[in-house]
């Protein structure tokens, strides 16, 4: 059965999207406290942001400061707020698992304050009774904030500093310099991964993340996720071509993609990426905390493992071509630099 895939722009309207969305905060921009119905990752595309987090049943607020290249996991139900105290814009893209969301394919947000806030919804009479307030106090608390999603705060306001002595790792750099990367291919690029090994909380979220930086004309070798997880791939920078192949021997997707576009790769479909001359950066998630990527090229690929008789019979090739093919799969080929 033929399956048509598409790459679409991640929604640039705050807090909406097809399993993904962008948040843009101008200087002094403040995203009101809220929680969501879906777990997700936030990846900082530009700028610096102060983030406050309150976990369910917690009496403490944890504050972190994240910057370009950082990734922050956000479990569903966790209350967060976001503040840009810098002098330049801050942009973060969110990608998450929405199959169990109220509206599959979309994030739904619940705000604690503002015109969409929970307190406003309960109205001042309930607020007064619950908190022991008089009518004026309850009305002010429920309705004084005229903003909906994002408000601009006054200049000079002092927000909390980053919390000290945080027990659990809450964010990390995934866009790192080359020497610090998990996989480095000279002349080709880097790969970094964040799994349950790095963030134990990802076990409960059922997510992991990967960052790939390809140099000009480099290729991310074909692979698929062998555990049946779904990948969502976001083009964070640059452009190139993505080719996806399913079970019918033809490309399900084969097209140019550019910065800001997102595509979802179905279970077990294989994918490869070829960067344009200026290179390409990809941020992706899979809906498992411990993904198993099966490489389709190189020394750990199936081509290297199959016995000569099986490989020759399967591909209907001569022993001589079998030897040539095997000789090309003796090294790691996760990223292939441009061939001269």
Which structural class do the helices and strands define? mainly beta
What gross morphology would you assign? elongated
> How many β-strands, per DSSP?
22
SSE succession: EEEEEEEEEEHHEEEEHEEEEEEEHHHE
Helical percentage: 10-25%
Number of helical stretches of at least 4 residues = 6
How far is it from the N-terminal to the C-terminal residue, by CA?
38 Å
Major sheet: size, sense and barrel closure? Answer: 11 strands, antiparallel
Low-confidence segments: 12-18
The averaged pLDDT comes out at 92
Would you kindly provide a written description of the structure presented here, covering whatever features stand out?
It is a single chain. The protein is mostly beta strands. It is built from six helices and 22 strands. The strands form three sheets. Strands 1, 13, 14, 15, 16, 17, 18, 19, 20, 21 and 22 form an eleven-stranded antiparallel sheet that branches. Strands 3, 5, 6, 8, 10 and 11 form a six-stranded antiparallel sheet that branches. A five-stranded antiparallel sheet has the order 2-9-4-7-12, with no helix packed on it. Helix 1 runs antiparallel to helix 2. The longest helix is centred in the middle third of the chain and has 14 residues, at 118-131. The radius of gyration is 23 Å and the shape is elongated.
């Amino acid at each position: 059965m033929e399956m048509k895939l598409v790459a679409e722009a991640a929604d640039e309207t705050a807090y909406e999207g097809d399993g993904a969305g962008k948040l843009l905060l101008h200087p002094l921009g403040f995203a009101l406290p809220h929680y969501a119905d879906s777990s997700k990752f936030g990846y900082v595309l530009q700028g610096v942001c102060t983030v406050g987090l309150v976990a369910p049943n917690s009496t403490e607020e944890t504050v972190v400061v994240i910057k370009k290249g950082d990734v922050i996991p956000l479990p569903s139900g966790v209350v967060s707020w976001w503040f840009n105290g810098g002098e330049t814009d801050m942009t973060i893209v969110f990608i998450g698992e929405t199959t169990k969301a109220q509206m599959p394919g979309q994030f739904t947000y619940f705000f604690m304050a503002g015109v969409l806030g929970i307190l406003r919804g309960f109205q001042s009479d309930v607020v007064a009774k619950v908190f022991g307030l008089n009518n004026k106090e309850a009305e002010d608390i429920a309705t004084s904030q005229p903003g909906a999603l994002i408000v601009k705060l006054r200049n000079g306001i002092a927000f909390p500093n980053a919390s000290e002595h945080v027990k659990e790792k809450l964010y990390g750099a995934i866009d790192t310099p080359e020497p610090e990367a998990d996989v480095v291919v000279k002349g080709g690029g880097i790969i970094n991964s964040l799994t349950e090994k790095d963030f134990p909380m990802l076990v409960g979220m059922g997510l992991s993340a990967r960052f790939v930086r390809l140099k000009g004309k480099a290729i991310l070798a074909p692979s698929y996720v062998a555990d049946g997880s779904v990948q969502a791939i976001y083009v964070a920078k640059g452009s190139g071509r993505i080719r996806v192949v399913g079970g019918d021997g033809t490309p399900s997707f084969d097209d140019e993609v550019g910065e800001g576009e997102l595509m979802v790769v179905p279970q077990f479909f294989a994918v490869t990426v070829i960067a344009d001359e200026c290179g390409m950066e990809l941020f992706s998630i899979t809906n498992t905390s411990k993904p198993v990527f099966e490489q389709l090229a190189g020394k750990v690929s199936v081509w290297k493992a199959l016995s000569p008789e099986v490989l020759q019979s399967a591909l209907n090739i001569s022993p001589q071509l079998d030897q040539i093919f095997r000789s090309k799969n003796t090294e790691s080929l996760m990223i292939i630099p441009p061939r001269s």
